């Protein structure tokens, strides 16, 4: 990745570091941030001078459009440190491209590649000591953009702020993951913004997810909102279903996020000679497969959760427990993926990019 | 409206007023704010001490959940000053109740009535000089709540900020309003958040609305996302269709905002002996009525736009121009409504509430 022109970024270093206050063995996902952040404002139709500066709160007008009309998008990616202390990104171009697709759908300006990638590289270099080695450890990277223009009128902002913040993490989910198949609530509309990583998509899921949590389920698997018959994705993960020896996953659509982990697992599975079928998966098929014993595994796939095995699902008040599996495809693919990400295995795909 | 216990609100007055810098004859909707705002934070499971203070930017952490997961809701209401300089709200209980319905759907805490209503009253009293008399003039009131808790993990915030800001306005739309009937894009899903005044619902409409604007239409009329055959509502207005002498409007649903203006116009129409049918209105019916000449009027209804006559619509690339009407029901209802709001006519409904 090019780090030319990085001299364009103004760098204001923090006088002190918070790193010694952090218990890296005991991180709660997304709650600790490094010493610096990257920021670039969009004003008068142009991206302004980018800056790296100490992580700190910033001022916003009460009428900022992000508060009132929800123009806000983000990405989630990770950086990994290998045994030689080199730092690697995983398919960053995918996140960059998806970010700008989200921007387009939310009527926000695209962020130039140079600003996104140089910002990311420089910031990671500056806070490199915060990236810990070892499988499971990673630096979670959160690029995001918000509408900072003022005025309570429902039309697109003229001003925006693009930022990158960094949070050292271990893994996202722990323990048993039981899921509820959505029968009434939905996360996305046909012709809506489900395929964008738009902030509003997430808050929309909180209430139904709370209800699921109260009923003893960690996650909801969303279905299509029109018929609730097709399995779509989970809150922050795409989902795979293994029936006999074939993996099934829904095609991406304007309702479903085009996950980087999903597409990576599809390629990895193919390279491991695991059959993958990308087609709409019906709830009725899942129930049938659970009943006749052909349903072997369900797992979620996402940057934060990596590969997250699901132990059972509930539909129409019936709970279907999945068998304890000997040779789990989820674990096989997770190992393969994390080995590549952590540079423990050769990356024959060209997915890892050194910063 | 009770103003007891207002002594609980801490009031920090602005040393100077910006009022003399404002050209009240030339206001752009929602762009000018009064000297003060009302603020109340939610922390540790409790609403904290409310405060009225000078309108000013405030600090937020870059990881605040409103930026990343879109937990943000709002209301839109108006205050009017009558000939005797008394200030009146219009059905404020409706906005208060809807605000808390939105809060529930977005997994945010409900705001107690005392905080909402006393805050509103005290703030309006303090900035009363900003409320101008005369039909068309109003104080637009924007209560809103955002998630201020930190951390990039997709679950509900623990901390929130509730604010009220005030913006003197005249009217929202001006000129000819032509609308496009949505054939692909949608604003809300079945089982989604369309009925909530959630920030994310608005940004979702910007891109398709931009496309409509570029094609020469001011607004989009959304249709149901599953079939695109039923007429739902516009970006910030519910819609009414007059076919012969009957008004039709869609029933509210989990996809459609339960507009205060809509329900008020329905009651006003009934009191004026205008037939109103509340039932799903099909795009095909509208086209048919336009073709056979029975479609007399279409108008939008909302707090900002009041009653906004629509001059024609486009569907499947055919533009249907509406007839210039002699005795417009839209204008009849608008006059009735604004007369009541501005206290030019007796309010036999008990809708107006003096502050
Ligand atoms: C809604 C949704 N689906 C799926 C994913 C998984 O995508 P990725 O693998 O790119 O992280 C995410 C998280 O990024 C998400 O937010
Ligand atoms: C989506 C939507 N529909 C309808 C309306 C009209 O509602 P009300 O009459 O309560 O202002 C609004 C504006 O408030 C709105 O945002």
From TrEMBL, chains A, B:
Catalytic activity from the UniProt record: L-valine + 2-oxoglutarate = 3-methyl-2-oxobutanoate + L-glutamate; L-leucine + 2-oxoglutarate = 4-methyl-2-oxopentanoate + L-glutamate; L-isoleucine + 2-oxoglutarate = (S)-3-methyl-2-oxopentanoate + L-glutamate
Cofactor: pyridoxal 5'-phosphate
One GO process term, biological-process aspect: branched-chain amino acid biosynthetic process
Molecular function in Gene Ontology: branched-chain-amino-acid transaminase activity
Cross-referenced Pfam families: Aminotran_4 (PF01063)
Keywords: Amino-acid biosynthesis, Aminotransferase, Branched-chain amino acid biosynthesis, Pyridoxal phosphate, Transferase
Residue positions where N6-(pyridoxal phosphate)lysine is found in the record: 197
Taxonomy, superkingdom: Bacteria
EC number(s) reported in the record: 2.6.1.42
InterPro entries: Aminotrans_IV, Aminotrans_IV_CS, Aminotransferase-like, B_amino_transII, BCAT-like_C, BCAT-like_N
Family: Belongs to the class-IV pyridoxal-phosphate-dependent aminotransferase family.
Name the UniProt record assigns to this protein: Branched-chain-amino-acid aminotransferase
UniProt organism field: Flavobacterium pygoscelis
């Amino acid at each position: 990745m090019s780090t030319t022109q990085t001299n364009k970024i103004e760098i204001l270093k923090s006088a002190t570091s918070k790193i010694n206050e952090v218990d890296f063995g005991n991180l709660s996902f997304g709650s600790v941030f490094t010493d610096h952040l990257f920021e670039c404002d969009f004003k008068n139709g142009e991206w302004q001078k980018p800056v790296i500066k100490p992580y700190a709160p910033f001022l916003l007008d009460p009428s900022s459009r992000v508060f009132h009309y929800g123009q806000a998008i983000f990405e989630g990616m990770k950086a990994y440190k290998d045994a030689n202390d080199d730092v690697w990104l995983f398919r960053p171009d995918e996140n960059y491209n998806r970010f700008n697709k989200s921007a387009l759908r939310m009527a926000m300006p695209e962020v130039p590649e140079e600003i996104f990638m140089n910002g990311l590289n420089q910031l990671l270099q500056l806070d490199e000591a915060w990236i810990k080695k070892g499988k499971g450890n990673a630096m979670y990277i959160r690029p995001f953009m918000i509408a900072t223009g003022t005025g309570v009128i429902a039309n697109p902002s003229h001003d925006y702020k693009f930022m990158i913040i960094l949070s050292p993490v271990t893994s996202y989910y722990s323990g048993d993951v039981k899921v509820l198949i959505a029968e009434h609530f939905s996360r996305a509309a046909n012709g809506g913004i489900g395929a964008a990583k738009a902030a509003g998509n997430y808050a929309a899921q909180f209430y139904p997810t709370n209800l699921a949590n109260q009923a003893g389920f960690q996650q909801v698997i969303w279905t299509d909102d029109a018929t609730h018959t097709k399995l779509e994705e989970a809150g922050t993960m795409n989902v795979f279903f293994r029936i006999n020896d074939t993996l099934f996953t829904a095609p991406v659509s304007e309702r479903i996020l085009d996950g980087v982990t999903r597409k990576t697992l599809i390629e990895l599975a193919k390279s491991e000679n695991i059959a993958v079928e990308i087609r709409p998966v019906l709830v009725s098929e899942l129930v049938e497969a659970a009943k006749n014993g052909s349903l072997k595994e369900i797992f979620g796939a996402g940057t934060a959760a990596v590969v997250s095995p699901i132990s059972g699902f509930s539909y129409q008040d019936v709970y279907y427990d999945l068998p304890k599996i000997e040779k789990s495809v989820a674990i096989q693919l997770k190992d393969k993926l994390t080995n590549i990400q952590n540079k423990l295995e050769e990356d024959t795909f060209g997915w890892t990019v050194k910063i």
